[in-house]
Amino acid sequence: MSNEFDNQEAVVEISLDSAIGTDALNSAVHAARSVASGALGLARFATETTVYLVTESTKAIANSILDTVVPVAVNAVVSRIDMNEIVAQADITPILDRVPMTEIADYIIEEIDLPSLVRESTGGVADGLLGTLRFQAIQTDNFVSDIVDRIFFRRKMRATTPEVLVGHATI
Amino acid sequence: MPPFSQFRKTFVPATQVHFSSLPERARSIQGLSAGFTSRVIAVFIDIGLVALLVLGAWGGWEALRYILSVFYTLPAATGIPLLIIGYFTMWIYWTWSWSIGGRSLGNILMGLRVQTKHGDSLGLGLAALRSFLSVVFALGLLWSIISRKNKSVQDIVLGTEVVFDWAPLLSKVDMTFTMEKNRTQGGN
């Protein structure tokens, strides 16, 4: 009598790399990670929104309080103060030292074109017919003095005001 | 018109600001000695003015005489006295006008000024002397054609000169001036 198991071979197969088991693990980890990051984002969003809302509402409240209080306070102060007296007591010299006087003067002179105003108001006579007469006399003089200087063989000629001849010949 | 703030940004401060009441084309000749033609025209303008004055006064006087007198007689030989009066008036007129700023009517119209060689106005004495010499020896002006410095005989004798001055003012007011600006950039 023999044990019937003795002659039989028992084969037990244990596979360590089960495909189904690894996939399930991976997806479980992934899901957990997603949930965690979503929860974190939500928490962050909630925090930021809360902070924002709190800040803005605080600002708004503070502003509205200041808007109400400050004019009243300032009025209360100003009504008790004589501004003119304060200004009268102020030393304006250092303030004036900071004011660019010459630049302001230049600005005004440039803006109203002072030189041309002076010219127009005083020099009107010298333009037109009288000016032409004067320049013709000058040109005649230049002509005559040139001839005389040549007659006397003068090495150094008289100044014939060349600017006049060149610049103002066409009157 | 730019606002001041903008002007200030772009403004480059000039070290010299030149103001002139003279017209543009007269600046190059301002202060140069004037030649014969300009001066002789001025003289003729003055002579015309004085002649007008003297003849006008004489005509007025004769008209008055005619109205007031019953037996009016035509004036006899008035030429010489009138000429003498004319010369005298000329002397007075030039003395007066040259001493108050160096410009008679003819000078003003021709843009001339009589001054000393230092550029000063003639005093009453010098003006009277120059005026007298000009009246008694008007031909002295002819020398300004020949003279290197456009000087007439009177100018040479008295040390005066006639220059261009287009400033349209009777009295000697220097309307042309240059302003020097001393700017210190960055305050101290």
Report on this model:
The complex is a heterodimer of chains A (171) and B (188). The N and C termini of chain A lie far apart (155 Å). Chain A has 171 residues and is mostly helical. Helix content of chain A is 72%, strand content 0%. Chain A is built from 7 helices and no strands. Chain A has 2 domains: 1-81; 115-171. Chain A has helices at 19-78, 83-89, 93-98, 101-112, 114-122, 129-151, 162-167. Residues 162-171 of chain A have low confidence and may be disordered. Chain B has helices spanning 4-10, 36-68, 79-99, 105-110, 124-136, 143-146, 153-158; strands at residues 16-19, 112-116, 160-164, 177-180. Chain B contains 7 helices and 4 strands. Helices cover 48% and strands 10% of the residues of chain B. In chain B, helix 2 packs across helix 3 (79-99) and helix 3 packs antiparallel against helix 5. In chain B, the strands form 2 sheets. A two-stranded antiparallel sheet of chain B has the order 1-4. By secondary structure, chain B is mostly helical. Chain B is elongated, with a radius of gyration of 24 Å. The A-B interface holds A 97-98, 100, 102-104, 106-107, 109-111, 114-115, 118-119, 122-127, 130-131, 133-135, 137-138, 140-142, 144-145, 148, 152, 154, 158-159, 161, 163-164, 167-168, 171 and B 1, 4, 7-8, 11, 13-14, 17-23, 25-26, 28-29, 32, 34-38, 41, 109-111, 145-146, 148, 150, 164, 166-169, 175, 181, 183, 187.
Taken as a percent bin, the fraction of beta residues of chain B is 5-15%
**How many H/I helical runs of chain A?**
7
User: Which assembly state applies to the chains in this document?
Assistant: heterodimer
What portion of residues of chain A is helical? over 70%
Q: What is the count of DSSP helices of chain B, taking H or I runs of 4+ residues?
A: 7
Relative strand content of chain A:
under 5%
Question: What is the domain total for the residues of chain A?
Answer: 2
Overall pLDDT confidence of chain A = 78
Would you identify the regions of chain A where 5 or more consecutive residues have pLDDT less than 50?
162-171
Class based on secondary structure composition and strand pairing of chain B: mainly alpha
Name the largest protein-protein interface in this structure.
Answer: A-B, 44 and 41 residues
The structural class of chain A is mainly alpha
Span from first to last CA of chain A?
155 Å
Q: Name the helicity range of chain B.
A: 40-55%
How many strands of chain A? 0
- Mean pLDDT of chain B, rounded to whole units? 81
Task: Report the order of strands and helices of chain A.
Answer: HHHHHHH
- Report the strand count of chain B: 4
Largest sheet of chain B: 2 strands, antiparallel
